[in-house]
Write a structure and sequence with these properties.
Oligomer: single chain
Strand content: 35-45%
Radius of gyration: 40 Å
Shape: elongated
Structural class: mainly beta
Largest sheet: 16 strands, antiparallel
Number of strands: 36
Strand order of the largest sheet: 19-20-21-22-23-24-25-26-27-28-29-32-33-34-35-36
Helix content: 10-25%
Low-confidence stretches: 1-27
Mean pLDDT: 85
Length: 838
């Protein structure tokens, strides 16, 4: 592209020096065979409108006063230096005149256009916004070939990653009439169709089947309707990662020489591509002799038991790494030392001998000194008070350093619900000179208060609820100046206010307060709640008025136990409820006038070690609860066989047992997995003290539907069974007499779409089975009503958990034709209880 136009004297280095003739130009004769030395008497810069002439001369490398040969290399280098800048589309060096041994030059340049604007064709508005961020080009920038090439490549990579593998990108350059030397660029994108993978052909594999190799590929999948959570979109970076996954699958089976020999991707049709992968497996290796060097704290036997690798085991590099450094269960060599203060501990695996297919291993250990904790600090909390965080932290100054205590502290902080689990960080600053370490916990606050706006259908009417949940409340700051923003907060207390109504026919109000650290020294909780509910026919005239008034309250204390481990809690609650009925002949009550009293005590033992309260990926939780009333009938001489219902149930008596358990496990085994398997079971039993009274009509179980709709005026427990209508899997439906025994089993596969703390979203597929029975004599744990379906959950800090499920029932219910019609179930602004889909 270089041109050197000589008007008076142009020295073209490309013209051979063997030319001996003289060519007169503007009366200046140049003898190309005999170069002559000149002194530059003057240089003018022509055409440089946006560049400093002095800078241009500096780049060219020639200046007035220089002595050069004409023709010669100096002018040739000057042209090359200017071309390297990429700022000009044309460069001319013109000799204007000579006088004796002096010569004058004009350097005439034509600047490349400047970018005035750029736009896109063939893309969406959001894609255009993303592309502007990725291109990194700005107005006023010189439009060079390099800029155009890089821009096209960036755009193409952007769409290839989105599955448009055959995307075409052209650039249309347009003169800008509003700006001198301005030029606009229009990037014309032809995305064509998204490209999916039709098939993946594996060659050279004998030890691992095609199915196992394909299963090891986590990102790229063949086109298949069964791939629900991974589409078959082709992506180059994902493909590179999956090739590593294939090699890792071989390494786990002892094939440490395995490698990908070649891979080819070619078009199958306009929509799909085929992939062919050639594998070289190599030989399988096994662990040989295992020895330890440098260990004084623990014996070889102890270390071998923790390592859990024996001579003759398949050489699995991933297992070796896990057993040495980071086993999720905490059973690894590093944890053994780091949990006992050996912060400066190191273990180095060394292959001492490789003979045939056997590898001898020596583990070289540096134990160092035990480290004690010097200082513990917190950063990032803008709302929660330091003492609320510090009381959950297990690492205290003066204690030996323990990695498991740090991990447990992070788990406890996550359970508070005030912080983003993805934003946790722990910074350790060791001081080897004095054997101490400083620990800083970094947290990131997230909104935790909630507004509950929910609606439900129950009892033939629409019911609305407005609730406020302040989960980080501070009672002691109620009268503190400046603490109302909008409410006093930061002490970790929980205040709940809720009102439910459908108008004059039903109104319910309740308030609860929880102090998780009563006294501030130990994790002993205090919970107080009061409530008042009125249900009536809405008539003001006492003659025709029908009403039920329920008033009560409860107080409870909870303790965090240390045995069997400190994931256990024990909770004791005393509650009192009084029912006042006035001509009330609806809602399933067996008498219409009178007063019933429910004085009960509840004992609850639970264990919870899940890693995240919103989207658990590992761990389990279970709860056993015993609620009972005194056997009031034993303290009087009433003939309960012939007593009227109002007298028989004046003081309600029963003993009620419930058990719930949930297990969470990552399907792919990753610590921060997105695909989780959940299994849950639940049982409930309502017993009686006196056979003459029988089972209490209060506190019974009602199963079916979303488990949320309906009135809980009689203490009933609503149990969801998705796919069926509300309360239909209940004895005596539609009379709703309730059940004294219930069982439910659930299996869910959950996939996290987003773990953003401001909007956690996950989908689920479920299998569910359950039933309820009127008496224990009818109980049959294998006679269940089954269902299956899918759902989605959205957690917003302001509103709690929102969900929708689509359930398909599988079994008939006596007296309920058409029960097998699929059902949608909606939930708004409420956490599900243990029976339901939490």
């Amino acid at each position: 592209m270089k041109r050197l136009k000589v008007i008076a004297l142009i020295l073209l280095c490309s013209i051979p020096l063997l030319i001996h003739a003289q060519q007169p130009l503007h009366n200046i004769d140049i003898d190309y065979a005999h170069p002559k030395e000149y002194q530059i008497a003057g240089i003018r810069i022509m055409g440089a409108h946006n560049l400093d002439p002095r800078l241009l001369l500096s780049v060219a490398g020639i200046s007035e006063g220089d002595r050069i040969k004409v023709p010669g290399d100096e002018l040739n280098r000057a042209v090359k230096n200017l071309w390297k800048q990429g700022l000009y589309s044309d460069i001319q060096i013109v000799a204007t005149r000579t006088m004796e041994d002096k010569i004058w030059f004009d350097i005439v340049v034509k600047e490349r256009p400047r970018l005035s604007h750029f736009s896109f064709e063939g893309v969406t508005r959001s894609q255009a916004n993303d592309l502007r961020d990725k291109l990194h080009i700005t107005r006023g920038e010189t439009v060079t070939e390099n800029l155009l090439i890089n821009s096209r490549n960036t755009i193409r990579k952007f769409f290839v990653k989105k599955g448009y593998f055959f995307v075409d990108v052209d650039v249309r350059q347009e003169k800008d009439p509003k700006e001198a030397n301005g030029e606009g660029l229009v990037f014309v994108v032809s995305k064509h169709r998204k490209i999916k993978v039709n098939s993946i052909d594996i060659n050279g594999n004998e030890a691992l089947s095609d199915k196992k190799v394909l299963r090891s590929m986590k990102e790229i999948k063949e086109k298949n309707v069964l791939h629900v959570f991974k589409v078959s979109k082709y992506n180059e970076s994902d493909f590179q990662a999956d090739k590593k996954n294939i090699v890792n699958a071989y390494l786990e089976q002892g094939y440490r020489d395995a490698r990908i020999v070649s891979d080819t991707m070619f078009r199958h049709d306009d929509k799909t591509v085929d992939i062919r992968i050639q594998v070289s497996e190599g030989h399988r290796y096994y662990f040989g002799n295992i020895t330890w060097l440098g260990n004084t704290k623990y014996s070889n036997k102890v270390l071998n038991n923790i390592l859990n690798i024996r001579k003759g085991d398949i050489y699995d590099d991933a297992k070796l790494e896990k057993q040495l450094y980071m086993n999720p269960t905490g059973q690894d060599i590093s944890s053994l030392y780091l949990d006992n203060g050996y912060l400066f501990f190191q273990v180095t695996p060394v292959e001492k001998n490789v003979e045939n297919d056997s590898i001898d291993m020596e583990f070289q250990i540096y134990e160092g000194k035990q480290a004690t904790i010097n200082e513990v600090s917190i950063a990032g909390n803008t709302k929660t008070n330091d003492q609320v965080i510090m009381r959950e932290i297990r690492t205290k100054p003066g204690q030996l350093f323990s990695r498991s205590d740090i991990i447990r502290s992070q788990r406890e902080l996550a359970q508070l619900g005030y912080f983003d689990p993805e934003g946790f960080d722990v910074i350790t600053e060791p001081h080897p000179e004095n054997g101490t370490v400083d620990i800083k916990y970094v947290v990131e606050e997230r909104p935790s208060d909630q507004v509950e706006l929910s609606g439900g259908w129950g009892g033939g009417i629409v019911v609305g609820t407005l609730g406020l949940v302040f989960s980080n409340f501070s009672a002691k700051s109620l009268f503190k100046k400046g603490a109302w923003r909008p409410l006093p907060s930061g002490d970790g207390q929980r205040l709940t206010l809720r009102a439910t109504s459908n108008g004059p026919g039903f109104q319910s109000y309740n308030m609860s307060f929880t102090e998780p650290w009563l006294g501030g020294r130990k994790p002993n909780s205090l919970n107080i709640s009061i409530f008042h509910t009125i249900r009536s026919n809405g008539v003001k005239d006492d003659t025709y008025k029908q009403s039920l008034k329920l008033t009560g309250g409860s107080a409870g204390l909870g303790w965090r136990l240390k045995w069997p481990d400190d994931y256990f809690t024990f909770y004791v609650q005393a509650a009192y409820q009084v029912y006042n009925l006035n001509n009330y002949n609806s809602g399933g009550f067996i008498f219409t006038n009178g007063r019933s009293n429910n004085l009960s005590a509840t004992f609850t033992l639970s264990r919870n070690d899940v890693d995240d309260p919103i989207f658990p990926t590992r761990g389990s939780k279970f709860t056993y609860s015993l609620q009972w009333t005194p056997p009031f009938s034993s303290f009087n001489d009433i003939d309960y066989v012939h007593a009227e219902p109002a007298e028989k149930y004046k003081w309600i008596e029963y003993h009620k047992h419930t058990f719930h358990a949930s297990w969470f496990a990552p399907v792919d085994g990753k610590i921060k997995s997105k695909l989780v398997l959940v299994n849950k079971v639940g049982f409930g039993f309502l017993g009686y003290w006196n056979s003459d009274i029988g089972t209490s009509p209060f506190e019974r179980f009602y199963m079916g539907g979303d488990g949320l709709s309906g009135f809980e005026l009689d203490g009933r427990e609503l149990i969801s069974l998705r796919g069926y209508e509300n309360n239909t899997v209940t004895p005596g439906y539609p009379n709703e007499t309730g059940a004294s025994i219930a069982a439910k089993y659930t299996c869910e596969l959950r996939y996290a779409i987003s773990k953003n703390p401001n909007a956690t979203i996950f989908t689920l597929a479920f299998l569910e089975a359950g039933n309820s029975w009127e008496t224990g004599r009818n109980f049959d744990p294998f006679k269940l009503k089954r269902s299956a379906g899918v759902g989605i959950r959205l957690f917003l800090p302001m509103f709690g958990l929102l969900g929708i499920d689509y359930g398909i029932p599988m079994d008939d219910i006596d007296g309920r034709p058409g029960v097998k019609d699929p059902q949608f179930h909606f939930t708004i602004g409420q956490f599900f209880n243990a029976w339901n889909s939490d």
